Amino acid sequence: MKIFALADLHLSFAVDKPMAVFGQRWANHEEKIRDNWRQTVEPADLVLIPGDISWAATLTEAMPDLRFIDQLPGQKLLLKGNHDYWWQSISKITRLCRDEGLASLDFLQNDARLLPDGTVICGTRGWLLPMDADYSPDQDDKILRRELLRLEMSLAAAHKIKEASSRLLVMMHYPPLAENHEQTAFTQLLEKSGVTDCVFGHIHHPWTGLRLDRTEIRGIRYTLVASDQIGFAPKLLFGA
Prior knowledge:
The protein is of the alpha/beta class and 240 residues long. It has helices at 29-40, 59-70, 90-99, 137-161, 185-192; strands at 3-5, 46-50, 75-79, 105-107, 112-114, 120-124, 168-172, 197-200, 215-217, 220-224, 235-238. The strands form 2 sheets. The chain has a 6-stranded mixed beta sheet, with helices on one face. Helix 4 runs parallel beside helix 5 (185-192).
């Protein structure tokens, strides 16, 4: 089994949200994702999708996007992003996907998954960081604290099923570290918890200092997997 990651699919089959307005690289991006995915991923593989999956506002509107993902090869583990307004309670999502026969989709929320090779995966959405220009303490402090608690919960769940020598991979939507790689409350928690790898999305401007590819920072390998940053193709993380 190979493990891939691809964030920020930004699908919109049921709503009017053309991504080409954000730049020519987004033109026909759904076809690029589909074609690259089919050429890369095999049925036994796993693809991590850390957020911004669909522009839908409701779970019903999101179903065409989830069906699109389900019809692609491999198993998929999905995490909520800041634009996933359709993401309701995890029980509603999993029940509807089961009823609709979307058997290749799994959803991560405040918990963890153990893979056959011993890898453990957990994570949370994350949030803006205090050093970000758009951060407002009045608006963002509460959300940041909540996301840190959710990460703690996910890491606690991971350690319950993790072997001592196992790989521990965290996926987040927002980057957990600053553009200058400065330590944050998120990275302190990741480092303290023995995380080996972290994938994230959300970042789209090409000049970012967070355009990382298995870059080791204080013992953790970080990879940006926003789809437009990696050519709309699932990024291979592990497996020959």
